[in-house]
Amino acid sequence: MTFAGFSRAFRWNDGVDTERYAAVEVRADGLFFYEWSHLHGAGRTGEQLQPFSDFRARGPAVPVPASVRVALEEIVRALEPD
Predict the structure, then answer these.
(1) What is the pLDDT of residues 15-60, one digit of tens each?
(2) Which of the two ends of the chain, N or C, has the fewest CB atoms closer than 10 A to its terminal CB?
(3) How far is 32 from 13, CA to CA, in rounded Å?
(4) What one-character DSSP code corresponds to residue 41?
(5) Which carries the bigger pLDDT value, residue 27 or residue 4?
(6) Beta pairing, strands 8-12 & 20-27
């Protein structure tokens, strides 16, 4: 897989507070984690970029739902050279 035209983002919340969510975007330079809030114009906070090599070695930089972790593992594995 290459990044030409590839884009994927995952978003989730706690199921109670619909004004906030956590997210991770798969980018060419790694996995970009952040939190988002619609309250008082807060926008994006807690930004963290995790290189793919670090994800392979340690898993996600922040806690993610199991389904998101599985999807990220599949995407990162597909990015590995043959």
Answers:
(1) 888 888 999 999 988 999 999 987 777 788 899 999 999 999 999 9
(2) C
(3) 17
(4) G
(5) 27
(6) antiparallel
Quote the pTM value: 0.85
Identify whether the C-beta of residue 46 lies closer than 8 Å to the C-beta of residue 34.
Answer: yes
CA-to-CA dists, residue 51 to 10, 28, 40, 41, angstroms: 17, 9, 31, 29
Cα 49 from Cα 3, distance rounded (Å): 17
Contact 34/20 with Cβ under 8 angstroms? no
What are 63's two structure tokens?
Answer: 């806690």
**Helix, strand, coil share (%) of the chain residues, nearest 5:** 30, 35, 35
Amino acid code (one letter) for 25: E
Give the type of residue at 53.
Answer: S
